[in-house]
Amino acid sequence: MQVVSRFRLFNFHLFSTFPQSTNLPYSLPKIPFSQNSYPKNPHFSIHAFTSKTFKSSATTSESAASILAKKVLFMAPGVEPEDITEDMILPGSNIVVGPYAGDSKIKEVEFVKSSNKPKDCPKDEKPEFAMLGRSNVGKSSLINALCKKKEVALTSKKPGKTQLINHFLVNKSWYIVDLPGYGFANASEAARMDWSSFTKGYFLNRDTLVSVLLLIDASVPPQKIDLDCANWLGRNKIPITFVFTKCDKMKGGKAKRPDENIRDFQELIRQNYQHPPAWIMTSSVSGLGRDELLLHMSQLRNYWNNE
């Protein structure tokens, strides 16, 4: 598949308003980061929308579904806003399921190789999803949960364990790619520069990349480094799905719940995205969102294969 088709997939869903840039995430313009510096959107909800919600937003010139689709929903390929029904929205997400959704079961997983340069990655033209996130976000745990195997990806209590681009072949037809985590504070400056260089090269030159699954820790407030990474991907027209991890963790005291942190993160992202990227809540412990994420990946993959 040519890279132009990947950009078509990006443009079909996200319509980013970012200017073109090749800067790394860490040098992007500052984003207002005060917890109270962004407006609340009365139409925003992290829950699936009900038919009652559709009706309450209706106008004489535009259907309620169309209004909601433009404000908060991630439109799947082949779906028109006026055709959306409640059961088409995946629970715990803003993702609409469309006609490209298909068999999402993982039957077998095989580790293929580790690469320290993008040019060394597999060259068999199979579509792939890149897992990216801050160190200790639960990336390896999510990969193991998706595959229903405990040791597909190495898990460790020590952040920064993944140091290479790791390709796992799923059902002999597509790849999950485990990328090094970013933001590992104890890494040397040289190691962080090396990570930035080769990961940037992977994103900009990997024609078989269907989408980046950007993992965000929902148990903590929005982190600037995650916002910077999302903005850099947007500027470079890299398709993205926000995968919120650790949604089962409920902290005591005055700490916000995962759903509140997700809402805050989305409000900040909406300052730079004309239309909302896909997002979904997950938990590697409880299995929340596992099947829904795989179904979402199946529709993106099938659309990629058929374009």
TrEMBL record:
It comes from the Eukaryota. HAMAP family: GTPase_EngB (MF_00321). GO terms for molecular function: GTP binding; metal ion binding. Gene3D superfamilies: P-loop containing nucleotide triphosphate hydrolases. The keyword Nucleotide-binding applies. Belongs to the TRAFAC class TrmE-Era-EngA-EngB-Septin-like GTPase superfamily. EngB GTPase family. This is GTP-binding protein At2g22870. Keywords: GTP-binding, Magnesium, Metal-binding, Nucleotide-binding. It holds the Pfam family MMR_HSR1. PROSITE patterns: G_ENGB (PS51706). Residues 125-303 form the EngB-type G domain. Its cofactor is Mg(2+).
